[in-house]
Amino acid sequence: MTAAPASRLAVVGTGWAGLTAAVQAVSDGWSVTLFDMSGDPGGRARTVEVDGRVCDNGQHILVGAYSATLAQMRRVGVDPAVVLMRCPLTLVEPDGKGLRLRAGHPITSFAAAVLSHPRWTLAVRLGVLRRAATWALRGFEAGPHRTVADLCRGWPEAALRELIEPLCVAALNTPAQEASAVVFLRVLRDALFSGPGASDLLLPSAPLGELFPAKALQWLQQHGAQWRPRQRVTRLEASTGAWTVDGEAFDAVVLACPAPEAARLASPHAPEWAQVAGQLQYEPIVTVLLDCPGATLASPMVSLTNGPAQFAFDLGRVAHQPGVFSFVVSGAREWVEAGRQATADAVLAQALAAFPMGTWPCAPRVATVLAEKRATFRCTAGLERPPSRVASGLWAAGDYVAGPYPATLEGAVRAGLQAAQGVSAECRHANEAFAMQNTAKPPA
């Protein structure tokens, strides 16, 4: 127990970061109250209902290196082996050819996959391995203002197109010409050098809500936490050693809402922090669901070129939804501006043109277009991100706070843990200081 028995914590926002912070705080002895504008937990990784169809608000990918996320899932009673489909990393094109890692240690598996790549010449294969080895020897370090494009200058064009660019857009949702080389290399390091299984793809085979949000909220309520859905926090005020949230007193607050909302609430108390959080820019992601009964793809996840979508997922092979396919458009600003119908038409045309004849036994039909306009922050080179600590007793939790990862579920979960641990450490230090002060006083 690191909090005093009566310590009250407000968590504003119930995305993956906020729920993680709340679970950790409850475990540390806090009495937790959760506030959220939405009526459902999960934030930008949740299950929604659109046009009568229950689906996720976008296709999400986890990898084996997401140790904190997997640990939190287990903590609230979710077995990752049941809700996630694990398979070695593959970056294959619609004909099934491309990079295929095998089970085993990521380093040897990656080297074997590169050497056996069916489309690359021997010169390209050896060039990829040589450059990857150079990154490893340098500790996967890069200058803070270098972009991924700078980092990969001189790479073979085929490797850039079929390896670097798909990995960059999948991990950072930012074009390689602008994406941070530092963050990109950190993602690669953890995936390729974290031991067996680190690079494995973990594809949700259950709705996102069942992966963590719903179970976490249930766990929290069973442990005494209060849940205030559809309640937007309008005012945050500081008093001596405490905070009030819309007039209700708390000992500490974790802002786990989106960065613009956190900046609004924090601005009167930490204007410099609010300025950094408020100037972040964002990239949308659009997900187009196609229906085509009887169709299957060459792999659960297929890499695409020459169109708006960079990846297609066969939900029949992944999530027990035969004949349903998820096409993901990352960095989708121009498509959001073009509109849903234009995006749907372009993705449908891409699907018909990209896959081999016979893939679609009947004409695919656009079922749903999901647009997350602020899906991730733009993870650009030299980007300044706000720290987790905002002020005394006020912390932030979100995938945007300063850390080694881009806007991913793992980044959000780690930020939630960091905020909750920071709040508890502050409380513990304050209690120790108070006890020492009282001990030092002479008797009356």
What does this structure look like?
- The chain is of the alpha+beta class and 444 residues long.
- The chain has three domains: 8-54 and 208-280 and 384-436, FAD/NAD(P)-binding domain (3-Layer(bba) Sandwich), CATH 3.50.50.60; 89-199, protoporphyrinogen ix oxidase, domain 3 (Orthogonal Bundle); 282-377, no CATH class.
- Helix content is 38%, strand content 21%.
- The chain contains 16 helices and 21 strands.
- It has helices at residues 16-27, 67-75, 80-83, 106-115, 122-137, 148-151, 157-172, 181-192, 208-211, 213-222, 259-266, 271-278, 315-318, 333-338, 340-354, 409-440; strands at 8-12, 31-35, 47-50, 53-56, 62-63, 84-87, 90-92, 98-100, 201-204, 226-228, 236-239, 242-245, 248-250, 252-255, 282-291, 301-303, 311-314, 324-330, 365-377, 389-391, 394-396.
- The strands form six sheets. Strands 10-2-1-14-21-20 form a six-stranded mixed beta sheet, with helices on both faces. Strands 16-17-18-15-19 form a five-stranded antiparallel beta sheet. The chain has a three-stranded antiparallel beta sheet with strand order 5-9-6.
- Strand 16 (301-303) and strand 17 (311-314) form a beta hairpin.
- Helix 1 runs parallel beside helix 16 (409-440) and helix 2 crosses helix 16 (409-440).
- The longest helix has 32 residues, at 409-440.
- Mean pLDDT is 93; it is low at 1-5.
